[in-house]
Amino acid sequence: MTVNKAFKYIVLTVSLLTGAGLVLAEEDELCAPFKDGVVNESLLATMLSAADDGHLYRIQQTSSQVGFCVDSKLSRVKGNFTDFLGGMSLNPGDNGDGQTMVLIKAGSLDTGGSIIENMLKSEKFFDVANHPEVLFVSNGFEWTGPDTAVLKGDLTMRGITKPVIFNVTLKSLDAEQVDQTQKIIVKATTTINRADFGMDGLSAMVSSDVHLCMSVEALKYQS
Q1: What's this model's pTM, rounded to 2 decimal places?
Q2: How many Å apart are CA 58 and CA 216, to the nearest integer?
Q3: Do 135 and 38 meet the contact criterion of CB atoms below 8 Å apart?
Q4: Angle at 170 between CA 1 and CA 149, to 5 degrees
Q5: CA–CA distance from 137 to each of 144, 146, 205 (Å)?
Q6: Which of 61, 99, 127, 164 could pair with 123 in a Cys bridge, judged by C-beta atoms 3.0 to 4.6 Å apart?
């Protein structure tokens, strides 16, 4: 069975990373970050349905990485976020399209150096004081090979939303067929222009192109 025939949806969603159960009494708390127009209500229904149907995978934060790199005249600057949330719904089916959500706490940025880190957190770049979260919500998913795909969606940083396209690979860690696995790795990469999100400081010193990358290990949720 090919991957594009093994899945109907791929959904990365913040609220399902937590260890809380998905009983009805907890649904409001789990979905709270995405309510009030932050995310379409149909996406909330989809992720809860995935949990009920046993197709939900939760990101293992300690073994996952979400970050970026950008070139400057001095060196390549790398940053990782230590506080991010996500989950993945894998629903067997014949369709290759799907939806994705990722929420990152911008203030958790770690560059390994306080000077660069503080600069990137300032109002000239991520402006974490006024925009503490980075949000990605997809609107299209297309398989390009047995384990590769193109993921399209909207990325919101500093209150600015722009379309982006991720190149994605998916790999099973413990089963020959992906739809039978208990653990998966999803890798996604893209390049954005930081000026599109109002981050145009130090343009003479730092490249406009920023490479975003995620390597996510997800474990199947057991209700």
Answers
A1: 0.79
A2: 10
A3: yes
A4: 85
A5: 20, 24, 31
A6: 127
CA dihedral over 115, 156, 36, 50, signed as positive or negative: negative
Gyration radius (Cα) of the chain, Å: 18
Helices 41-53 and 24-31: crossing angle in degrees, nearest 10, is 140
Q: Measure the CA–CA gap between 25 and 152, rounded to whole angstroms.
A: 33
- Which candidate, 79, 87, 123, 122, places its Cα nearest to that of 103? 87
Q: Where are the beta strands (DSSP E) in the chain?
A: 10-12, 56-59, 65-71, 76-81, 84-85, 87-90, 101-105, 109-110, 133-143, 148-157, 160-172, 183-193, 209-220
The answer to whether 46 touches 11, Cβ cutoff 8 Å, is: yes
Beta strands 209-220; 87-90: pairing state: unpaired
Quick one: tokens of 8? Answer: 């109907």
pLDDT tens digit sequence for 21-73:
334 434 444 455 556 666 677 777 776 777 777 777 777 889 999 999 999 88
Q: How far is CA 82 from CA 1, 9, 34, 60, 207, in A?
A: 36, 26, 20, 12, 24
Neighbours of 130 (CB within 10 A): 9
In tens, the pLDDT along 66-114 reads 999 999 888 899 999 999 877 777 655 445 445 677 889 999 999 999 9
Q: Quick one: CATH architecture of 3-220?
A: Beta Barrel (2.40)
Domain boundaries, the chain: 3-220
Residue 90 tokens, joined: 């894998």
For residues 63 and 100, what is the distance between their CA atoms, to the nearest angstrom? 20
